[in-house]
Design goal:
alpha+beta; 5-stranded antiparallel sheet
Length: 270
């Protein structure tokens, strides 16, 4: 078979494509500004810089990217949060993201870094440590504790995400604990309270499933709250989570009330 290698992209064509992207980008920023946003997330920096013809390691391109996209977005009055990647080598990355150092130098607010502690996943609880890599206004670091692979980083919080099935997840931020740099066994009062609430909801889920299993007809949330001892708010949260997890089916009944029952057993199940 006679094949020819793909031609190297013409630099002029690349510049023309970047100019086209820029025109669309400016129009998009104008549309965004008309909506008066309070938060804008750029996901992610590598893809955006590449689209605009920039090189990640070129500090001049990084500066141009900031002037072209990030600064105009900030001028809308919104808080701008660019998401970026770090280098693979955890020992040498320090507080810098992938590419040139100007990515950090150009930050005029706060730069956070996420360090994985436990992986996130369906039906699991994951944790990442949120550290402050830069705090130009000097207003955030005072709420953090020193610590991290770099002496210049501070431990601000732990992000904990608990997944319940494919469609429901709960995220919480916990403050740092002044004990060690990796206080995995330590528990704050907020975490302890959250764990107690979580256990109460799980116990209530079991009670809801038990009541529905013996019920002769579908029940409303109020019916379940009347039949199950304890706070009605806990029962409602338990029902909501069971519905999201697919363990309970909710159907519209008379006057718009939601009727709950257990799902039909699948073929082969008793």
């Amino acid at each position: 078979m006679d094949t020819q290698p793909d031609p190297v992209p013409d630099p002029a064509a690349r510049l023309q494509a970047a100019a086209t992207h820029l025109r669309h980008l400016l129009a998009a920023i104008a549309t965004i500004a008309d909506r008066h946003p309070t938060l804008i997330i750029v996901d992610g920096v590598t893809e955006a810089m590449t689209m605009l013809g920039g090189e990640l390691k070129e500090n001049s391109d990084i500066a141009r990217f900031g002037r072209t996209l990030l600064r105009p977005l900030a001028d809308t009055g919104a808080a701008v949060v660019p998401l970026d990647h770090v280098v693979k080598n955890s020992e040498s990355r320090g507080r810098y993201s992938l590419g040139g150092v100007h990515k950090l130098n150009a930050v005029d607010g706060v730069q956070y870094m996420l360090e994985a502690v436990r992986p996130f996943g369906i039906n699991t609880e994951g944790r990442s440590r949120l550290r402050i890599a830069k705090d130009r206004p000097a207003q955030i670091r005072r709420h953090a504790l020193p610590g991290g692979r770099s002496s210049t980083m501070h431990w601000f919080a732990d992000l904990v995400i608990r997944s319940e099935g494919d469609t429901f997840a709960e995220a919480r931020l916990y403050p740092p604990i002044e004990r060690t740099d990796n206080p995995e066994p330590a528990v704050t009062s907020e975490e302890k309270k959250a764990e107690q609430e979580e256990q109460a909801i799980r116990d209530r889920e079991e009670a809801v499933l038990k009541v529905l299993k013996s019920a002769l007809e579908p029940l409303t949330t109020n019916n379940l709250a009347e039949l199950i001892p304890g706070r009605a708010s806990v029962t409602r949260r338990a029902v909501t989570r069971l519905v999201h997890a697919g363990k309970v089916v909710a159907e519209r009944g008379a006057r718009g009330a939601a009727l709950h029952h257990l799902p039909e057993p699948k073929e082969g199940e008793k």
